[in-house]
Amino acid sequence: MFAVQSILLVMIVKAVISLTCLSNEAKEDFEKSRKAVSDVQDNINKVINQLRTMGSKITKLDNDFKALGKDLRKTKWHKYNGHCYYYGSDSTDWFMAERKCREISGYIAKIDDKEENTNLAANRPYS
């Protein structure tokens, strides 16, 4: 009986020791996993902050473009078919008109078709 008890005690001690090792490994795995989750959370927070910053910048740009659009509507500019047209009110010769266009980084418009001509005439700010 004593031998059986001794063997049983040895087996229990081995089982307890192996459980402790397993627990230490499990603790290490848990800590590694917790650290990885924490790192992922930190990265997610960084991305969220970057997205907020980008969103603010996009909102500011959108507001700037809206203001620019309002300014363009107040002036004598008209956008048509991917081009911007400026309607000058000065009565001048071709050479002076061409020079004024260059001063605002533009060119004198060359009307290519009736549709373009009709659109530009219809949107002229003055008669």
TrEMBL record:
Residues making up the signal peptide according to the UniProt record: 1-18
Swiss-Prot/TrEMBL keywords: Signal
InterPro entries tied to this protein: C-type_lectin-like/link_sf, CTDL_fold
Source domain of life: Eukaryota
Protein name, per record: C-type lectin domain-containing protein
